[in-house]
Amino acid sequence: GPHLLSLSGMTQERIVGILDAAEAFLDVGQQSVKKVPVLRGKTLVNLFYESSTRTRSSFEIAAKRLSADVINVTPSQSSVTKGESLSDTVKTIEALGADGIVIRHASSGAAEFVAERVECHVVNGGDGCHEHPTQALLDLFTIRKKKGRVAGLTVAIVGDILHSRVARSNILGLSALGAKIRLVAPPTLLPRGIDRWPVTVYDRLDRGIDGADVVMALRLQLERASGGYIPSLAEYSRLYGLSREVLERHAPQAVVLHPGPVNRGVEISGEELFCNDVAILDQVEYGVAVRMAVLYLLMGGRGEESSLLAAGSR
Ligand code: CP
């Protein structure tokens, strides 16, 4: 360790420390200084058991900008296909010389399982329906850039909360920073026990986003809803899809976020002519700086900075 497995228990001070570090790395990028030598000689391994465009690429770009060596181990092309276990796979990767592993896996708890079995740093790149901490950190960073703060803002998270690791990490991060959180979803897409979360639940989109500062649409996770979706996709887009009309009417000042990938025409209407500030590509851009900050704070080798993330480890 230390690791970044979850935002559970991470204090406001520690989250702000990561966002401030990301700000510094964003400035580096803006000044076109693409490479800094802080992780020279370190090796990061991306181990993604589920597909990814954004997370895997941005960890790779972030690590390379910090001068680390990066390799991608793709389970479908690895000895996982010959029956090698997750435990043996990560111990093998560590024996090859990894200083850090970014793991994405379909099972909730996979990142913690890995962290218990290796000495190197582990970052959770998304585990099942559990957490996706760097996604939430880049969402918080984007909100802070667009609105100047997070405390006191009303953030409406719309859609498939039930299957969403992005929603879980965001609820932890947003509540640590003092945002007011609304969840907008039909009861079929909400988890049990929601009444114990620091959120207000709405089942109507217009009421749920009314006056919100931030509207975050979630992807309908077609790969996880084994019994199909209720409501159906067509009903969902009619009832919960973000359109220019509903946003202009109920949340004209809202910044619109989506972790991606977007199912066009389902969570967000196909039209591009929103009057709102749609920050989906800003999220991707800021994600590189946020992941640079996370890798630097974890692997940069100064005990004091590593401890910034220690609360996010177990
Ligand atoms: N937001 C996100 O995790 O995207 P990818 O699945 O493309 O990494």
Automatic annotation (TrEMBL):
InterPro entries: Asp/Orn_carbamoyltranf_P-bd (IPR006132), Asp/Orn_carbamoylTrfase (IPR006130), Asp/Orn_carbamoylTrfase_sf (IPR036901), Asp_carbamoyltransf (IPR002082), Asp_carbamoyltransf_Asp/Orn-bd (IPR006131). Heterododecamer (2C3:3R2) of six catalytic PyrB chains organized as two trimers (C3), and six regulatory PyrI chains organized as three dimers (R2). One of its GO terms (biological process) is 'de novo' pyrimidine nucleobase biosynthetic process. Keywords: Pyrimidine biosynthesis, Transferase. One of its GO terms (molecular function) is amino acid binding. Pathway: Pyrimidine metabolism; UMP biosynthesis via de novo pathway; (S)-dihydroorotate from bicarbonate: step 2/3. Its EC number is 2.1.3.2. L-aspartate binds at K82, R165, R219. Residues 152-298 form the Aspartate/ornithine carbamoyltransferase Asp/Orn-binding domain. Belongs to the aspartate/ornithine carbamoyltransferase superfamily. ATCase family. This is Aspartate carbamoyltransferase. It catalyses: carbamoyl phosphate + L-aspartate = N-carbamoyl-L-aspartate + phosphate + H(+). It comes from the Bacteria. Residues 3-144 form the Aspartate/ornithine carbamoyltransferase carbamoyl-P binding domain. One of its GO terms (cellular component) is cytosol. Catalyzes the condensation of carbamoyl phosphate and aspartate to form carbamoyl aspartate and inorganic phosphate, the committed step in the de novo pyrimidine nucleotide biosynthesis pathway. HAMAP family: Asp_carb_tr (MF_00001). PROSITE patterns: CARBAMOYLTRANSFERASE. PANTHER family: ASPARTATE CARBAMOYLTRANSFERASE (PTHR45753:SF6), ORNITHINE CARBAMOYLTRANSFERASE, MITOCHONDRIAL (PTHR45753). Carbamoyl phosphate binds at R54, T55, R104, H132, Q135, G260, P261.
